[in-house]
Amino acid sequence: MQGSTDLGKLVLRVVLGVLILFHGVSKLIHGPGFVVDMLAHAGLPTVIAYGVYVGEVVAPILLLLGIWTRVGALIIVINMMVALALVHLGQLTSLADTGGWALELQGMYLGAALAIALLGAGRFSMGGSNGRWN
Questions:
Q1: Average pLDDT, stretch 89-117?
Q2: DSSP states of the chain as a string?
Q3: How far apart are the C-alpha atoms of 129 and 27, rounded to whole Å?
Q4: Domain extents for the chain?
Q5: Are 60 and 21 in contact (CB under 8 A)?
Q6: Which of 46, 60, 63, 100 is most buried as measured by Cβ atoms within 10 A of its Cβ?
Q7: What span, in angstroms and rounded, lies between the C-alpha atoms of 36 and 47?
Q8: Using an 8 Å Cβ cutoff, are 64 and 18 in contact?
Q9: What is the spatial distance between Cα 8 and Cα 126, in angstroms, rounded to a whole number?
Q10: Which residue, 6, 7, 113, is CA-closest to 63?
Q11: pLDDT tens across 19-64, in order?
C-alpha cells in the first residue's frame, strides 16, 4: 500500500511541477512585465515581481526533483495566493460559462500545492521519504 501512496505523491508533484514550470518558462522568455504592472497598479514595490521566478521556476524544480519538496510547495501556495489577490480577486465568486468555478485552475494549483506541503515528497524523490524537508 505504501508504494501506491508514494506513486500518488510522485504523480501529484510531477503534474503540478510541470504545469507551474510552464508559467515560469514563459516569464523567463518574456519577462515579468505583467506581474510588474499588477504590482504597480496595486501600489506595491515592483521589485517583488522578480519573486515570481522563485515561485514559478525554482519551486517547481524542487517539486520535480523531490528536494525540499514541502518548502517548494509552500512557495507555490504563497505564489498562488498572491496571484489570486492581485489578478483574480474579482472572479472569486464567479462561475465560468461552462458552469464551473471561474478560478478552478488556480484553485487546483493551490490545492495541489497545499496537499504536497502536507504529504511530502514520498519515496520516489531525490530527498527520499525521510528527507528533512520532504
A1: 93
A2: -HHHHHHHHHHHHHHHHHHHHHHHHHHHHH-SHHHHHHHHHTT--GGGGGGHHIIIIIHHHHHHHTSSHHHHHHHHHHHHHHHIIIIIGGGTT-B-TTSSBTTHHHHHHHHHHHHHHHH---SSSTT-TT-TT-
A3: 32
A4: 2-119
A5: yes
A6: 63
A7: 8
A8: yes
A9: 16
A10: 113
A11: 999 999 999 999 999 999 999 999 999 999 999 999 999 999 999 9
What is the Cα–Cα distance from 33 to 21, expressed in whole angstroms? 17
Cα 55 from Cα 58, distance rounded (Å): 6
> What are the grid coordinates assigned to 57, written together?
521556476
Cell reading at 108:
487546483
Q: How far separated are the first and last CA of the chain, in Å rounded? A: 19
Q: 29-40 burial by CB neighbour count: b if 16+ within 10 A, else e? A: eeebeebbebbe
Q: Is the pTM of this model over 0.90?
A: yes
Provide the phi-psi class of 31: left if phi over 0, else alpha when psi is between -120 and 50, else beta: left
Cell numbers for 103 = 478560478
